[in-house]
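Record type: ASSEMBLY
Status: queued
Input:
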Amino acid sequence: MIHEEISELLATYALDAVVSAECADIEAHLERCPRCRGELDAYRDVAAALGNSAAPLPEGLWLSIVSRLPDSNEEPSPMPRLFHDAVNGTDAARPRQRHLSSRARFGVVGSILGAAAAAAAAAALLAFGLLNAGHTPAPVQAAPAAPASGVVAALETPGHKVINLGNGSARAVAQFVLAGGRGYLVSSKLPALGRSETYQLWGVVNGQPISLGLLGQSPSGSVFTLAGSAASSQLRITVEPSGGSVVPSGALVASGLV
Amino acid sequence: MHDSGEASDAQLVTAIARYSEAALAEVYRRHGGAVFGLAKRVLSNATEAEDVTQEIFLRLWNQPDRFDASRGSLRSYLLAQSHARSVDSVRSLSSRRRRENSDVDRTATAAYDLQHEVWDLSLADQVASAMNELPKEERQVIELAYFEGYTYVEVAQLLRQPEGTVKSRIRNGMRRMRAALVEAGVQGVDAS
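Status: finished
Output:
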């Protein structure tokens, strides 16, 4: 096949929908044509987006994968060092070695099984009663962690909303799920603040920002109530003094439409 | 100092090349749900999707060098592998028996990553929106090819359309999708 014929087939090839007899010609052409490789990569990004969906992983699947990895008698290297080395390249010349014992494997498994719980364990119940602009916002309370099932239930609630809060340079620096009168901060890429400051979350109702609570210096998972502010058209995060503010006074670091 | 949760996908693959199971575990945490979800969507069978997911992660463990970060995200790479393997499986099943043996409703609960699930849901909304904007003819051929595992020749037979028409619709649809996703700020599917 000539270049034009291959080029016409690349989108179909990215969907794995060419007939097998054509694959060899396409792959041989890709080896020598950087333009087609670039075009294929672009189509594959689209295909990956099409196929990108959230699916709960079956219990036991990870154990099954781990059980099929080659076994070893060597002791594991501690994780932090591995990644430190990977970043700095200090052990780049080290040959690939098998080094994890079964015991270590199950430690890893344990960390995976705890991932969902860990996401929730980081959660702190935000102070309620912050919905009137005349009240002084209460600081974050050291409250029981919200169960992971709460976020899962929110995601399964009909009409739930996933809100990405972005800033000028990033599309999503914080992600929230809103459902059933509650909101959940699920992830945040906001940098840690000093002790004298805190992130504060606001809901915009009829054009007026109303405090939904303090997110602390290094936000992770949090849950807050939307009672009385369900009509928020926008969520915003600002940097405020550590005690919080009645009205936004600091820098707006993220916002997103509800 | 980095831990697995902070490492980039490329760093994780580097660590996997050094036999770090913790790195593989982190990749599984980040992308396992998407790999499994796509396989289940194509195969309509959770058990077979588990087999595909296992195979994809074992392949990453055994051949980490096959991932080329300069050609796309790890998520895209793993999804491409999952899709190709699933389609192979679908085409090997006699009379596409998967359609009669569907168990897509099987419940499965385990460790999955809320942060990435939310990201995936957000991305899925944008992709669904972009798909809905496509002309029906383009959307139809892409869905039959990608999610049902038909070749373009089979799609042409199903729709009684010339093969050239199907190829053109797939290409035009994919281009339109790409433009819509780029406009929406979705470039690749790297959720890390």
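Annotation: Helices of chain B lie at 9-17, 21-43, 46-62, 74-92, 114-133, 136-146, 152-159, 163-183.
Annotation: Residues 98-112 of chain B have pLDDT under 50 and may be disordered.
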